[in-house]
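Q: What structure does this chain adopt?
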Amino acid sequence: MQDLAHRLATSADLDLLSALMRAAIDELQKPFLNDAQIAASRLLMGLDTQLVADGTYFIVTRAGELAGCGGWSRRATLYGGDQTPGRSPALLDPAQDPARVRAMYTHPDHARCGVGRLILNLCENAARAEGFRAVELVATLAGEPLYRACGYAPVEPFEDTRGGAPVPLLRMRKAL
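A:
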């Protein structure tokens, strides 16, 4: 992880982030999902500009290249991008609600290089600093092994069919 650097994302990064997300969904999901499920994933996931506006979304570079992105949220929305139905801007109560780890993406050229672990550490530390005692996320099949290795436990498997094809997902949680 020594060649990794990070910073908070800004609105000037939105186009780059969207391109990275498309590449990650299109390539890293191939071993787990069929073409229809990948197309549905593009509709269900993606950029949540609220995270950038809240100052809780990180960009990671590796050797100067955009390698990944991800963030956390103090809001109720558990997953999805700006276009995903059912979003809620309601603020969570750190004393009783888990913070959300959101929109984690690694560029395929930088997969398995520590990018995801760095983002998780940044998110967990920031949520802990704001008084949260747990974090929750929704894992894709491609992301589940990383989250398990980082101490996240399964809570509930489910499928999201709102994109036209059933996309298997797993709600996971970790105590901080």
